[in-house]
Amino acid sequence: MKKKQIHFLKLYEPVHEQFERFCRARVYGEMEYSDLMNETLLVGFEKFEKLKSETAFLSFLIGISIRILGSKNQKLREERMTTSMNINQVKDENSSTDLSTDIHFLHESLAKLSVNQKEAIILFELNGYSIKEIAKIQNASESAVKQRLKRGRDNLIQIMNFESTYKIESINHG
Q1: Range of the domain at 100
Q2: Are 26 and 87 found together in one domain?
Q3: Are residues 2 and 88 in the same domain?
Q4: Which of 64, 93, 122 is the C-terminal boundary of a domain?
Q5: What is the four-CA torsion angle of 97, 88, 27, 68, rounded to 10 degrees?
Q6: Which bin fits 171, alpha (ψ -120 to 50), beta or left (φ > 0)?
Q7: Which of 23, 99, 134, 173 to pair with 119, CA 20 to 30 A apart?
Q8: Does the predicted TM-score (pTM) go above 0.70?
Q9: Which residues lie closer than 8 Å to 29 by C-beta, 6 or more apart?
Q10: pLDDT exceeding 70 applies to what percent of the chain?
């Protein structure tokens, strides 16, 4: 058991920052990123023997976190519908006061994308995954991933342009 723990931590240390960045961006406004990280690491440690290649360790963790989120979202879907809670209005209580406005605005905008578009953009733009790697993680074709990236970027541009225009107008008229 101790050997397994040491080996797991040896693989985790170099990917910690990338994994944390993925979790922060992926769950922004939905839940605590640290909860997702902890739950993923626990499941990852339990299923560590199923890891086929040490070089795929980060993908292994991201895949687990995506499945955890899918499971949680499925359970919460009914609750969200009955309470009419708008996920995009949930504030991140972990954000520090000195967090850049641009980063905060980007996270809010990302939260408005579909799950597949958001994951594809986070994996590609923030974590540096290739389209082929994302296709494997999302269990989709490479062309589907390319389409998600294109549509996601287009949607982000529309969201960010609309909201920045809206904020400027409300400041000028407020």
Answers
A1: 95-174
A2: yes
A3: yes
A4: 93
A5: 150
A6: alpha
A7: 99
A8: no
A9: 87, 88, 90, 91, 92, 107, 108, 111
A10: 76
